[in-house]
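mind reviewing this fold:
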Amino acid sequence: MCIRDSSAPVTVVEFADFKCPYCRIFAREVFPQLRRHIERGQVRFYFLHYPYLGPDSLTAALAVEAVYAQDPDGVWPFMDALWRHQGPEQARWATPELLVELARQAVPGLDAERLAQDLQAGRYRDRVERDVQIALRLGVRGTPAVFVQSRAVADWSYPSLARAIEAALSG
């Protein structure tokens, strides 16, 4: 998913798992700072799924894709709700029931029944699998995995990302 389809000169890609506590830190602390680069037209940001921590990692990824299919702008408040309600990594917390309820609260006007049906049918599994295949080709082993201009950034802190973005802009 692209946060903003634009002609921005620098591409940043994040692979994430909604059960990953470090992905939550990235989403809540790093991404808001990165968003400034997106809003200035410097960065085109892609969020890709790498659900490897448990079965409900996949369920959460499927829910995100189903919400995106209904309301591309609504997916970001929904993802924020997922990060706010993230349970322990070892617990199975991303149930279809919770995901539908969070979507209902975060995305007014969303067809919650359609979302529940999409989850039951695994309707967007091909989209998630496409992301996983990309991650595997790139050698992603954990999350968050962040790439700037197709180059892995080992330290995904904002200062490190800002340096990589600035280098890409000047190079």
Notes: The two ends are 26 Å apart (CA to CA).
